[in-house]
């Protein structure tokens, strides 16, 4: 708690965490020997295990913040091996991915994705968008939308586009932050999977990794909106994932500050012609209904409107008659 709340910088927080780790390690070893005696001791051992894992993760995060990337990677790898499957909710592999991307170690990033980007494991924006980034990295520097439109996509480009579509389906809010179409704010303390809060958190820590790959943001810009053609009814049926949850907006409003404009699932904008046609048809139908119900009143209204329209025309004709010569008006009437 002192490291979390009272420390004024990362160095001081790391010192506090190291002190806490020494105490936690002693408690862990003591409870490990007694865990089989009764249920209370087993529960205490689980608690000590969770505390030690939490502190080790925080120490690794401190090392990452202080630029000791190799040390942070080793600590995260050790944690990923030792943490039981039930603790996958900590998403230690996402911390590991971020460190490896910072180092530019894409081979190890691919190895981590091969283990955790599995159909049976929970997904996240970090997993899906990192997979898309690696696919984009192989083709983005030579990608051109004009050329691809003429000759079609190659196999590698198609794989990259499909990976981007998959990532956008999982969290459709991320591209606007990566492409800087929306202002980025500090990530919240808690996030909601597939929500705006997760998108902000991902973009805050990973935007630099996308900028580092030449052409990756251009490829994302050209292809991300194509996802919505595959998902005509995203709240009812998904393509690769479950339908998009409709409750994310309310939860994100509680997690994010009031000044932030919460991103809502992108809605398709109808063309102006369709909107104009719909409005004209509705107006015509309303006039027909009113004329059928109140023919006399509508007749009076129609004559009044026609008189309003005709009045300026009569005024213009009178002025023209007084200004123009009679012979010219006579010739125009014959024409």
Report mean pLDDT, rounded to a whole number: 83
Q: What kind of sheet is the major sheet? A: none
Rg, Å, rounded? 32 Å
| CA(first)-CA(last) distance | 96 Å
Helical/strand content category? mainly alpha
What form results from the Cα inertia axes? elongated
Uncertain runs are none
How much β-strand is present in the residues?
A: under 5%
- Estimate the helix proportion, in percent: 55-70%
The number of E-state strands comes to 0
Element string (H = helix, E = strand): HHHHHHHHHHHHHHHHH
Total helical elements: 17
Describe this structure in words.
The chain is mainly α. Helices cover 69% and strands 0% of the residues. It has 17 helices and no strands. The protein has helices at residues 2-6, 10-34, 39-65, 69-82, 92-103, 106-116, 125-137, 145-151, 155-170, 174-178, 196-212, 216-223, 227-230, 248-255, 272-293, 295-323, 326-334. The longest helix is centred in the C-terminal third of the chain and has 29 residues, at 295-323. The model has no long low-confidence stretch (mean pLDDT 83).
Question: Short summary of the structure?
Answer:
The protein has 335 residues and is mainly α.
SSE order and pairing:
Blueprint (H helix, E strand, L loop, with lengths): L1 H5 L3 H25 L4 H27 L3 H14 L9 H12 L2 H11 L8 H13 L7 H7 L3 H16 L3 H5 L17 H17 L3 H8 L3 H4 L17 H8 L16 H22 L1 H29 L2 H9 L1
Helix pairs in contact: 2-3, 3-4, 4-5, 5-6, 6-7, 7-9, 15-16
Properties at a glance:
mainly alpha, single chain, 335 residues
């Amino acid at each position: 708690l002192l490291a979390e709340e009272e420390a004024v910088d990362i160095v001081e927080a790391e010192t506090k965490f190291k002190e806490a780790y020494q105490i936690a390690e002693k408690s862990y070893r003591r409870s490990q020997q007694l865990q089989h005696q009764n249920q209370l001791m087993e529960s205490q051992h689980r608690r000590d295990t969770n505390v030690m894992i939490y502190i080790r993760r925080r120490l690794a995060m401190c090392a990452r913040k202080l630029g000791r990337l190799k040390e942070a990677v080793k600590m995260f790898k050790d944690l990923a091996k030792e943490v039981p499957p039930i603790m996958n909710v900590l998403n230690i592999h996402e911390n590991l991915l971020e460190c490896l991307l910072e180092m530019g170690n894409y081979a190890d990033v691919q190895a981590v994705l091969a283990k955790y980007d599995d159909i049976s494991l929970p997904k996240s924006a970090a997993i899906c968008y990192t997979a898309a980034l690696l696919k984009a990295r192989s083709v983005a520097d030579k990608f051109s939308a004009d050329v691809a439109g003429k000759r079609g996509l190659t196999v590698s480009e198609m794989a990259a586009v499909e990976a981007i579509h998959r990532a956008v389906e999982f969290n459709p809010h991320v591209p606007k932050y990566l492409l800087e179409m929306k202002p980025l704010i500090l990530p919240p303390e808690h996030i909601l999977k597939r929500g705006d809060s997760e998108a902000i958190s991902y973009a805050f820590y990973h935007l630099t990794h996308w900028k580092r790959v030449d052409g990756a943001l251009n490829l994302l810009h050209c292809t991300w909106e194509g996802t919505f053609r595959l998902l005509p009814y995203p709240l009812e049926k998904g393509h690769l994932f479950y339908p998009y949850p409709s409750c994310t907006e309310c939860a994100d409003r509680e997690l994010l500050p009031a000044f932030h404009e919460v991103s809502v699932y992108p809605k398709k904008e109808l063309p102006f012609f369709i909107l104009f046609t719909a409005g004209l048809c509705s107006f015509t139908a309303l006039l027909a209904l009113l004329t059928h119900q109140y023919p006399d009143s509508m007749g009076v209204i129609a004559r009044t409107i026609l008189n309003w329209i005709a009045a300026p025309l009569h005024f213009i004709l009178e002025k023209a008659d007084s200004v123009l010569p009679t012979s010219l008006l006579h010739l125009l009437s014959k024409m």
